[in-house]
Amino acid sequence: MVQNPLFMSFLFWYFPLINLVAFSIIEVDKQLAIQQKRRISERNLLFSSAIGGTIGSGLAMLIFRHKTSKISFLRKFFIIGILQVFLVYFYVIKSKKLLLLITSKVASGYAFAKAAGTFDFLVSLHLK
Q: Transmembrane segments in this chain: where (predicted)?
């Protein structure tokens, strides 16, 4: 998992902002629908969710009762949400397990090579 403070600071500001934007886009689309004006495309609504605004979009859909009866939109919206949950799971949980596995294998390989006396031989080959 990335521990870079700059990256974490970026995420700290990115997700609230993108969710605010996604919330606002759904609100504007609802107002345009009420006024029977040209609307924001579903592609753009879903794109704002896909880039991290799923929570903001979902809240706006519930608050403004917008796009809640259109099954095709909801299906795509929930697929995006499920994919994001899997991405977070694999990024956070699996990367820790993978990192632990790699470090344990490297440590055990180092211990084996040192015990077998091949470590110094390998280092001498690398330094040549």
A: 6-25, 45-64, 76-93
Q: Residue 53, class by beta-carbon neighbours within 10 Å (0-12 exposed, 13-18 middle, 19+ buried)?
A: buried
Residue 40 DSSP one-character state: P
Distance separating alpha carbons of residues 119 and 124, to the nearest angstrom:
9
Q: Report domain extents, the chain.
A: 5-91
- Indicate the pTM of the whole model: 0.70
Rounded Cα distance between 12 and 23, Å, is: 18
pLDDT higher than 80, residue 31: yes
Specify the residue for token string 């700059």.
6
Spatial CB neighbours of 89, under 8 Å, sequence gap ≥ 6: none
- List all residues 6 or more positions away from 29 whose beta carbon is below 8 Å from its beta carbon: 39, 40, 45, 66, 67
79: closest CA among 71, 91, 90?
71
